[in-house]
Amino acid sequence: MDKLEALKRLFPGKVDLSESERLRHGKDEGYPKEGEVLAVVYPEGVEDVQKALLWAREHRVAVIPYGAGTSLEGHLYPVQEAISLDLSRVNRILEVRPQDFLCVVEPGLTRKALNEALKGTGLFFPVDPGADASLGGMAATNASGTTTVRYGGMRANILALQVVLANGEVLELGRPVRKTSAGYDLKDLFIGSEGTLGVITRLTLRLHPLPEHVHTLRVFFPGVEEAAEASFRVMASGLPVARLELLDEFALKALNRHLGTGFPERPALFLEFHSSTREALEAESALALALVEEAGALEVEAAKTEEERRRQWEARHQAYWATVHLFPGHQFVITDVAVPLSHLPEMVRYAQGLLKEMGLFGTLVGHVGDGNFHTLVPVLPENYPRGEAYAERLVQKALELGGTCTAEHGVGLRKKPYLPLEHGATLEWMRRIKALLDPEGLLNPGKVLDMP
Ligand SMILES: Cc1cc2nc3c(=O)[nH]c(=O)nc-3n(C[C@H](O)[C@H](O)[C@H](O)COP(=O)(O)OP(=O)(O)OC[C@H]3O[C@@H](n4cnc5c(N)ncnc54)[C@H](O)[C@@H]3O)c2cc1C
Fold first, then answer.
1. Which of 41, 168, 270, 362 could form a disulfide with 377 if both were Cys (CB 3.0 to 4.6 A apart)?
2. CA pair distance 361, 355, nearest whole angstrom
3. Which amino acid residue places its CA nearest to atom 21 of ligand 1?
C-alpha cells in the first residue's frame, strides 16, 4: 500500500493533504523560503503521536512538530520529505492547582488561551513572546519575552514534560516541584530542542500571582546608547523591574505609522514595575525616575490607566509587524543577540552604526533588561546576502563580548552557521546526543545541527 494511503487509514479524519495546508505548514513567520510538507497530521493524544512516529520510521519520512507556526528562523521548513505533526488539537488544560502554583497542559494550548482560562484564579502564566504561540512550541524554542526579566523564560517556568521519542517511547521528565536535584536534568535538554529530539505531549508549568501594584512608564532619550545605559542602571538598582524594553527611533516611527499612535520618535525605554504595596510602588517609581533622568532621559510619560498600559504593551508587541508592513515586497533578516548587561550600550551603538556603515535600514527593539535585542532589517530579495552579512557581523561582535547568537528565537535553519562560532568543539557533543535520541535523523532534520 502507498505510504499516504497507509497514513490516511491510520488516522481517519486526522490527515489533511490539501495544497494550501501543506504549504501553510511548510513555513513560519520569518523565514523567506516556503516549503511544502507531504501531509499534515492532527494527532489527538499521545498515542496518535506515537503512531505517527512509528509510521514515519517505517516509511523513512521526516516529522516536523508544529505548534502555532509563529517561529522565525526556518524551524518549520522541510529540507527533505516530511509530514507536519500539527498539535493544535492536543490542547486541553488537564489540571490547575492554584495552591501549588502550577498547571498541567497539553502542547497545542496557546499562552493566551491559558491566561484566559486562569482568569479568576489570581494567577497567570508570564512568558509572552508577543505572538499567540502554543505552549509546546514555546517550550521547544525556549521562548521568552517582555516579562522574562522578572519571571524567567520557558526553562524557568517548566517543572515537568512528557516527551515522545523518535522510537515511540514515552518519557516523563521532571517533577511538579519547584526544586529537585535528582539526577541529570533531561527535561532541560528537550526545552529549546526545536522538535529535533522528541515531541512534547504534556507540560507542567509554574504559575505566578497576578501583580497588584503595577507602574508603567515610557522614557525617551537622545540616543540608543543613553537608553541602554539607563536600562543598565535600572537593573543594577535592584528595583522590581517586570518589563524593560528598548525601542529605537525608527521602531517608534514605524509604530506611529502602523498604529496611528503619537509616540515621540526618539529612542525609548518602555518599563514596568510590579511592587508589593502602594507605598513601595511610589518609592520605587521615584527612584526609577531619578535613575533614568541621571542617564539623560529627555521626556517621561506614565501610563495612567489599565487601558493605557495595555495599549503600550500591545504597541510594543506590534513593533515587528509595524516594520514588516512598511516594507512590502521585502525580505526580513532578524537578529537576536544577547550580551552581558554591562556591554549592552556598546552593543546597541555598534548595531546602529553597522547598519549605517553597510548602507542598510533597520529597526531595533529588545528585551534589554536581559541584554537581548533584535534588529529587523528589511532588504529587497537581491540584497538578502547583505542583510545576512550584517547579522553575521553582529553575532561576531556579540560573541566577542561574551554573548550569544540567539537569546530566544532559536536556531532553526538561519542561525545554524553561527553555532560553531559560539560552541566550538561542544557542538560535537550536541551531535552525539541527537544521534543517540534520533539515530535515523527523522525528527525535524536540518534544524539546529547538520548531521554527518
Ligand atoms: C511578531 C513576533 C514576535 C515574536 N517575539 C518573540 C519573543 O519576544 N520571544 C520569543 O521567544 N519568540 C518570539 N517570537 C517567535 C515565536 O513566537 C516563538 O519562537 C514561539 O515560541 C514559537 O511557538 P509556536 O507554537 O508558534 O511554534 P512553531 O513555530 O509551530 O514551532 C517552533 C519550533 O518548535 C517545534 N515544536 C512545536 N511544537 C512542538 C512540540 N509539541 N514538541 C516538540 N517540538 C515542537 C517545531 O518543530 C519548531 O521547530 C516572535 C514571533 C513573532 C511572529
1. 362
2. 6
3. 138
Mean model confidence pLDDT for the chain:
96
Model-level pTM? 0.96
CA 84 to chain centre: 20
Provide the strand spans (E) within 57-120: 62-66, 82-86, 93-97, 102-105
Name residues contacting ligand 1 (CB within 6 A).
Answer: 28-29, 64-72, 75-76, 87, 107, 129-131, 133-134, 136-138, 140-141, 143-145, 194-195, 199-200, 320, 408-409, 444, 447
Report the pLDDT value the prediction gives residue 83, as an integer from 0 to 100: 98
Helix axes 46-59, 3-10, angle to 10 degrees: 170
Q: Which domains are assigned to the chain? A: 3-89 (3.30.43.10), 93-209 (3.30.465.10), 213-321 (3.30.70.2190), 327-423 (3.30.70.2740)
* Nearest CA-CA partner of 159 in 117, 209, 125, 118: 125
pLDDT in tens, 60-82: 999 999 999 999 999 999 999 99
Q: 184 and 190 in contact (C-beta within 8 Å)?
A: no
What is the pLDDT confidence band of residue 400, given thresholds at 50, 70 and 90?
very high
- Please, is 436 exposed, middle or buried when counting C-beta atoms within 10 Å of its C-beta (0-12, 13-18, 19+)? exposed
Instruction: Compute CA distances 130 → 30, 73, 198, 252, 408, whole Å.
Output: 14, 16, 25, 17, 12
**CA end-to-end distance (rounded Å), the chain:** 32
Q: Which residue of 28, 71, 92 sits with most ligand 1 atoms within 8 Å of its CB, as the best mutation to test the pocket?
A: 71
pLDDT tens by residue, 230-288: 999 999 999 999 999 999 999 999 999 999 999 999 999 999 999 989 999 889 889 99
Q: What is the DSSP letter of 204?
A: E
The residue written with cell numbers 560552541 in the block is: 423
Chain length of the chain = 452
